[in-house]
Fold each of these.
Amino acid sequence: MSMTMTPGDEAGAYISGIDLNHVSPSDVESIKAALGNYGVAFFRDQSITSDNHIAFAMHFGDININRFFTPLADYPQIAQVLKEPEHDRNIGENWHTDHSYDQIPALGSILVARELPDSGGDTLFINMFAAYDALSTDLKSKLQGLTATHSSRHVFGAKAWEDEGGSDKTGRLKNSDAATQDAIHPLVIKHPFSGKPALYVNPEFTVKINELGEAEGEALLNEIYTHAQQPQFMHRFEWQAGSVAFWDNRATWHKALNDYAGQRRLMHRITVQGVALHG
Ligand code: OGA
Ligand code: MN
């Protein structure tokens, strides 16, 4: 297999010369290295079966069954990330990293394209190693030792979608009563695979910085969010038939573009369990 990095500080590496239906131990090590250094591994022209999607995921850890997504009928481990032609909203439309509301957050997700719109439906990724590295020395030292609280309540809770007037989550998202997780993590973490520092707050699930007053904490979060959203840290992944993306939540943010009104998009997602995070 070979690895091609995205340009500059953008997130991710494209990995070719590998069939995800048959991965070797050294492939697994190379993919971990890609995640620990670039945050996402992208694959093209795959024909991975659901059984092998599960087998591939289990090389990286236990499967984390998401409480909120509707799974495939025959595979409870595989979540459907679905938008039907009649749906207005998609899943994952704001910048986020999955599961930061868990005290032991998921490592990442392996998303397999199953049905794509004729055009649109790309996913954007941001490289949180590069975003951290580009901070001023002063800001880096200010962030040392700070922690943030993350929560699922305002995103997956009963009121979350209805508040915006859209109630079309029916059949896609469930268990809103289970949206009661809160977790505390360092603002800057050391990546479990590479030891590289990464910013670990995100606009969707982070609710406050614990050591600062509300206004000061919010201002600092907004400063980080504006900084991270610069184009030099961002990679746009264009899905094609056979594409697979494996992102690491400890090193990236992602966002699903909602620009394919009236068309169906179906992705299969397996989430791999991670470890507790440390600064
Ligand atoms: C997700 C997600 C992005 C996409 O599955 O967690 O945010 O492009 N998906 O479907
Ligand atoms: Mn997501």
Note: DSSP finds six helices and 16 strands in the chain.
Amino acid sequence: MSRIYNFSAGPAILPEPVLEQAAHEMLDWQGTGMSVMEMSHRGKAFVSIAEQAQADLIELLAIPDGYQVLFLQGGATAQFAAVPFNLLGDHQSADYINTGSWSKKAIAEARQYGDVNVVAEGANTDPMAIPPQSEWKTNANAAYFHYCANETITGVEFPYIPDTGDVPLVSDMSSTFLSRPLDVSKFGVIYAGAQKNFGPAGLTVVIVRDDLLARASEQTPSVWHYQRQAQADSMLNTPASYSWYIAGLVFQWLKREGGLAVMAERNERKATKLYAAIDQSEFYRNPVVPEARSWMNVPFVLADDQLDATFLAEASNAGLETLKGHRSVGGMRASIYNAMPESGVDALVEFMADFEQRNG
Ligand code: PMP
């Protein structure tokens, strides 16, 4: 068996010990004689898996009392609609900041259900940046304020949590969730698809503050109705049970590794190394201002895009896979989630230097 370094943005690399444990438990989960995939979601065994995963996540993020933690389906894209359905209530509109492609998609979806006030646009500058909060045209009566904490495609990440006063803060954290400690008490809603930093596709974690549960519109589909799902322990219908189980194994792995403070240290170190390699060279370039650079997704372009195909082919020969940038921006992108070992970043940096030497 040989494993590559997988820099995919998602579905993405998972910790090897998690995959090994899942393989070990595949045919017979802890003496039940069944795979987790084959279990009734209402049975004792799966309910214990689900509850443990939830408890471990609460512990990892130190989620305070007064929040519900939901394990839903439909991806972050479903949440683009679920958020306005659940939170608009009697309000006229919601505030959104546009910092890139995923913000834009969230905005377009929300516009189908209510009025959206875009407080600022940060996606069109070169280098890309997050407009300072002093320039945001916010509405004090907004139903909520939505931002994408980390734009997976362009690698623009908020280095701070916006202060929105009494307006509930909502964040799409899909590609940065669990990359570092987080003060959950600052948020009304946090959502994240699992397939980047904590599991297989098909599962979305939603963390909702209790006082927001009563706002849902009557048209809210039941599967995305936060209050109904909370009352049903996220099992209003059949959940993504296997993905939930794997996410639980990832949470246990994170705890064994020392928790999110340790992850933050590692992630910062990995990202710093890669950005330093890019900045030191005349051959590679990252299009984001240093203070808004993502720890998780590092896009870069080569000075000569004619070399892109050769770069990717040679990287692949060196065991460095899925480095092609998103089709909308081109170039390269290295996603370096929690499960990417530092040795993977070292191997990439070494390959980049060698490639530059031969082609620069
Ligand atoms: N938001 C962000 C930040 C993402 O990176 C993605 C997936 N790439 C999405 C939303 C959409 O997620 P999903 O495909 O799970 O609906």
Note: The chain has a mean pLDDT of 97.
